[in-house]
Design goal:
Layout: E1 3-9, E2 12-21, E3 24-32, H1 39-46, E4 51-52, H2 56-69, H3 88-98, E5 106-107, H4 108-114, H5 121-129, E6 142-143
Parallel strand pairs: 1-4, 5-6
Antiparallel strand pairs: 1-2, 2-3
């Protein structure tokens, strides 16, 4: 059974879809509000049968997300995310991206090279474009090699 929690932030609501995996709460998706499309509307469309529910661990993560969006220096553990729903390559990309320190920037090409994919910039960009865990895995820390931003789920 999928569960959901919504947190209001300075940038609109953030929706967290989670479930229990081996009696541990795991986030399966984080939805950011976009211009003209709230996280609540996205949750209703993508997870119509999810029920409103939370637990201490998920509450802590949701509160930390709000803090991050209010400017606090928050580092999330990947342990709360259910990476098993991602492809093997996407898992590698998300782990590599998660390792980029706060305040640092890399490129899709560098991440690809780090993963042994010399010409993997586009694949890295696609994996990050479909990042189900924005805020936990801050995909804005990698940009295009021409130093311009790529696209982001919540907009630029």
């Amino acid at each position: 059974m999928n569960r959901k929690i919504i947190k209001s932030t300075p940038f609109g609501s953030v929706g967290v879809i989670w479930t229990e995996v081996n009696d541990n709460p795991k986030i399966i998706r984080i939805l950011l509000s976009k211009p003209g499309l709230s996280s609540e509307d996205q949750m209703s469309e993508l997870y119509p049968n999810s029920e409103a529910s939370s637990c201490a661990e998920i509450d802590d993560v949701a509160t930390a997300m709000k803090g991050l969006l209010e400017g606090e220096a928050i580092a999330f553990s990947l342990d709360v995310a259910d990476l098993s729903l991602c492809t093997g390559f996407q898992q590698l990309v998300l782990r590599a991206e998660h390792r980029i320190p706060r305040g640092s920037v890399s490129t899709y090409r560098r991440v690809g090279e780090y993963l042994g994919k010399r010409n993997g910039a586009r694949a890295v960009g696609n994996a990050l474009a479909n990042n189900p865990f924005p805020l936990i895995v801050p995909c804005h820390r990698a940009i295009r090699s021409d130093l311009h931003f790529g696209g982001y789920q919540g907009g630029l």
